[in-house]
Amino acid sequence: MMHKLVLITLFFILLCFVNDVGAYLPGMNPTTYRKGDKVVINIKNLSSRRAVTSLNYFSFPLCSSDNANIKREKSPNIFKIISGDNIHNTTIETSFLNDKTCTFYCNVFIDEEVYNKYKHLILFNYNMVYSVDNLEIFREDPRRKGFYYTGIPIGYIQDRSYHLYTYYKITILYNNSGGDPNKNHIVGFEVEPKSVDFSTSEECEGNETKQSMEKNKYVTFKYDVKYVKSDKPPQHRSEHYYQLFFLFTSLWKSNVYYLFGFLFLVIFLLGLLSAQLSISLTYYTLSCEDYNWWWKSFIAPGSSGIFLFLYSVYYYFLKLSISSFAETFIYFAYSFVMSYTCFIYTGTAGFLASFVFLRKIYSSIKVD
C-alpha cells in the first residue's frame, strides 16, 4: 500500500511540472505562432568540424556580438544547458509570415586583429550556430544534394585568398496541419550563405561580386528571411533535433562515420573489463574459502554506474550553471537513467562471466 502511495505522489509531482519541463526538451513544446508574432533568432556559439572545442561567439567581431540589448534565452533545451552553451538573441528582427529581403545586418571594420581572427575561423571551418524556437540552423552541401551541416560558415578560401559570406538567405519552414491560421509551428530552419561585395552595389540579387577579405576596409552583412509552408508535421522537430544534430554534431562535430562502430567498441570493452574484474574477484573469494560470490560478482563491476552518477553530481555543481527546478530535475533524471543502465550492464556482464567461469572449472574436477 505504501509503495502505491509513493508512486501516486511522484506522478502528481511530475504532472505539476510537466509543462515547465517540456520547454527544456529538444524539439518538444514548440511555440505556436500566428501572423505578425515576433520570431526570435538566437546565437549559440561557434562550432567546427575540425576542432574539438566550441568558441564563444561574443569573443569575435561578428554581427550581433557587440549589441548591448542582447538578452539571454530564457528556455534553452536541456542539452544546450548541459553542454554549457550561452544562448543569446541576435539583432535579426523578424515577425511570423512577414518576409524580409536584403536587410542590413551590420558593418565590420577589418583591421589587423579582426583579419587574423576571421582567418583563424575560416581555416578551422568554424560556423555560427543560430537557432529559432529550439531548432538550430542547417545548410545544404552545394556539392552533395541531401547532405546538411549545422551553422553558417564564416567564409572560404579560393585562389589563395580569403572570402567572407556576407549574405544570409534564411528560410523558416512552418506547418499548419490543423488548418487554423492562428496555430502554426516552426518545423525547420535553413540558410544559404553567399559571398557578396556590397561596396560595389547595394543590391543582393544579381550581385555576383565576391567579398574578399581585405585589411582596413568595412564589410557589410545583409540577410533575407523567408517563410515557407511545409507538410512536415511538428513531430518532425524532435526527430530532426535528436538523429542529425544532437547525436551526430554534438558528440562528433559532424564526423558521423565512425560513431556507431566506436560506440559499440567502447560498450564491448566495458563489458569485457567488467567480466575480467568479476572473474578475478570471484577466484580470490573462493580461494579464501568464501562461497558468497554471487552478489560480489555483480556489485563489484556494477559499481562503475555508481561512480558515473557521483561524477554527474560533481559535474553539476562545478561545471554547470543550472538554476531552475525543471533543469535540475531533467539533468539528474537523465544522469540516473544512464548510471543505472551502466550499473545493470556491467553487473550482469560480471555475474555471467563468473558463472560461466565457475561452471567451467568445476566441470573439469574429477571425483573418484
From TrEMBL:
List, alphabetically, the GO terms of the cellular component aspect.
cytoplasm; membrane
Which residues, by range, are in coiled-coil regions? Answer: none
Cellular compartments annotated: Membrane
How does this chain sit within the bilayer? Multi-pass membrane protein
Q: Which residues form the signal peptide?
A: 1-23
Question: What is one Gene Ontology biological process annotated in the Swiss-Prot or TrEMBL record?
Answer: protein localization to membrane
What keywords are assigned to this protein?
Membrane, Signal, Transmembrane, Transmembrane helix
What is stated as this protein's family in its record? Belongs to the nonaspanin (TM9SF) (TC 9.A.2) family.
PANTHER family named in the record: TRANSMEMBRANE 9 SUPERFAMILY MEMBER 2, TRANSMEMBRANE 9 SUPERFAMILY PROTEIN
Return the protein name: Transmembrane 9 superfamily member
